[in-house]
Design goal:
With 186 residues, the chain is of the alpha/beta class. The protein contains six helices and seven strands.
């Protein structure tokens, strides 16, 4: 608990809102998705932490992924709410992932895994990336290990844009952008 409190204070100190964002791509995401105040009827169907679940709902609604790969215990993604096909990682065979023709529009890492396992999944999936894919890492500040995992991911050479919303870390591989990290208060 003390770790999360310290991490949250550090997050608040470093975070910005839309006024501190100079990337048009990230500015649109922040203003049209993160700060969307619409009371969607689907919110009533969300379980668990409403603020986090609502943010995740808005992110998925914003990007409109056709296929979502979920790694880890399913906790916040509910197939009844989204028109996306949600594929639990456990259903995929690792040899199927090695084929070049498989891609996902969104990958959700539910950080119940160890740092080693998360980094292994990250590296295993790198060949599936496209320019418009979004990867979401859950609970990036939950523990020191999760924060270290997040730091490793942010530094990867293929990663171009990362966004820290405290609960979620978002990863983009947009070739046209310079490497940049954003800490956004949601």
């Amino acid at each position: 608990m003390l770790h999360i409190l310290k991490s949250y204070i550090k997050f608040l100190w470093n975070s910005k809102n839309e006024h501190g964002v100079h990337s048009p791509f990230v500015f649109d995401l922040v203003t049209k998705c993160f700060y969307d105040k619409t009371k969607y009827p689907e919110y009533s169907l969300l379980k668990n932490n409403p603020k986090r679940a609502q943010l995740l709902f808005r992110i998925i609604r914003y990007f409109k992924p056709k296929t979502i790969l979920e790694i880890g215990n399913p906790t916040e993604l509910d197939t009844n709410i989204f028109s996306s096909e949600i594929i639990p990682f456990e259903e995929l065979q690792k040899n199927k992932l090695s084929k070049n023709n498989i891609t996902f529009d969104l990958v959700y890492f539910n950080q119940n895994e160890s740092q080693k396992a998360t980094i292994e999944y990250f590296n295993l999936l790198l060949h599936t990336i496209t320019n418009n894919v979004v990867w979401i890492i859950n609970d990036i500040h939950k523990s020191t290990e999760n924060e270290n995992t997040w730091d490793i991911i942010k530094k990867h050479p293929k990663v171009k844009v990362t966004i820290d919303t405290f609960h979620f870390g978002m990863v983009f591989f947009r070739a046209e952008q310079e490497k940049e990290h954003f800490v956004i208060r949601v």
